[in-house]
Write a structure and sequence with these properties.
- The chain is an alpha/beta fold.
- It has 3 domains: 1-41 and 158-290, 3-Layer(aba) Sandwich (Rossmann fold), CATH 3.40.50; 47-150, no CATH class; 291-371, no CATH class.
- The protein has 17 helices and 10 strands.
- A 5-stranded parallel sheet has the order 2-5-1-6-7.
- Helix 3 (47-55) packs antiparallel against helix 5.
- The two termini are 34 Å apart.
Length: 371
């Protein structure tokens, strides 16, 4: 199980989490791995990924390169210099930054491709020269580049231990030799001092990278050995990254990837779970592909109710769902009502939904099930 945790709730498992999944996983002998994308996971050395993440910082603003075609040209030139840096993920950030700045500023043809007009070209060249010669300005640019570079480096920012490679982490989740399988939580929330990492676009790009490599490694394993991944991917706040928004951008790209992945990865043993407070917010193609749906209390708005009616029809099941009481209205230990549609229970011989009261207190569970 791999959980994408954009708000850190599954990682912290605070008082708002009535059931501690990591404790359950340990009881069943699973290796529990709670990893922060900011400090614990090493991204693969991909030039395009590095440049895309840099583009979402203040890097180009500091160089006085305006958005649009000029910035796209600059991104191409910096990527070209980056490709010439062997093992850039292993070098010190200071050396990498100096190589990038001097490699572009010292190339007249490259500077002309960024800005054909001499005035703006001179402005950018002056900004680069100041950074390379002025320690204060260089330090400011370092504060922008270092957090991005750290995501690709082997050592953690504190220098005391190593990051886990993304390849190795995924392999531990899909390998048949791992038994029992690990319970992995990837904390995508931004730690103190790394607010840039909390950007929705950056978070979506990182999820896309991880999910893409998961699919690729699982497909390779299946092709070579016919062994299925036997892995479920859980998205908390699913409406943020699996929605029906259109247009360009990382969030839209991720949603489109997930639409295809949900449809095409069953045969290689990857399942997908989306947690959301609004049915209408999930991409329709993803919602339609979900075999099992668990409906908790709170679907009361018009579009959500319409989707619910389409799912179970109008009748006794729908009336029973509407009778659910708000768990928050109860003092002390709570129970949570759920209506589950789909092939979830061997006790249900029809297509009718299964209804459950889920308890968070063992004694109350026993009391309710005395018979």
């Amino acid at each position: 199980m791999i959980v994408f945790d954009p708000q850190g709730q599954f990682s912290a498992e605070g008082p708002d989490m009535p059931i501690k999944l990591s404790e359950w996983a340990r009881v069943y002998g699973r290796d529990v791995r709670k990893l922060s994308i900011a400090t614990d996971i090493r991204l693969p050395q991909e030039n395009e990924l590095f440049m895309e993440l840099i583009q979402r910082t203040r890097f180009y603003q500091q160089l006085s390169i305006k958005a649009g075609d000029n910035r796209e040209s600059a991104r191409y030139e910096f990527k070209r210099v980056l490709q010439a840096q062997t093992n850039w993920h292993e070098t010190e950030t200071e050396g990498l930054l100096r190589a990038l700045l001097s490699g572009v500023s010292g190339d007249t043809a490259a500077m002309t491709r960024i800005y054909a007009s001499p005035t703006p070209r001179a402005r950018v060249a002056d900004a680069m020269d100041r950074m390379l010669s002025d320690s204060t300005e260089f330090a400011e640019m370092m504060s922008i580049v270092r957090p991005v570079h750290d995501l690709f480096r082997e050592m953690k920012p504190d220098g005391t231990s190593r990051r886990v490679s993304l390849y190795g982490l995924i392999q531990s989740a899909i390998s048949a030799s791992e038994s029992p399988k690990p319970y992995i939580v990837i904390n995508l929330s931004a730690p103190a001092g790394a607010a840039w990492l909390g950007s929705e676009e950056i978070t979506a790009r990182l999820i896309h990278t991880i999910a893409k490599h998961l699919r690729r490694q699982a497909e390779t394993q299946f092709q070579e050995s016919k062994v299925r991944a036997n892995c479920v991917v859980v998205f908390d706040e699913g409406q943020r990254f699996a929605n029906a928004s259109t247009g360009d951008g990382d969030v839209s790209d991720l949603a489109n990837f997930l639409v295809a992945a949900v449809r095409e990865t069953r045969k290689i043993g990857i399942g997908w779970t989306f947690i959301t407070q609004q049915l209408r917010s999930l991409h329709p193609s993803i919602y339609a592909q979900l075999a099992v749906k668990a409906f908790g209390y709170g679907l009361t708005t018009g579009s959500d109710i319409s989707l619910l009616k389409d799912e179970i029809g109008v009748g006794g099941a729908f009336d029973l769902y509407q009778s659910f009481s708000n768990p928050s209205s109860r003092a002390g230990a709570r129970s949570y009502p759920f209506m589950i549609a789909g092939p979830i229970s061997p006790l249900s011989f029809t297509s009718a939904p299964v209804f459950l009261d889920v308890f968070t207190d063992v004694d109350e569970f026993r009391q309710a099930n005395q018979r």
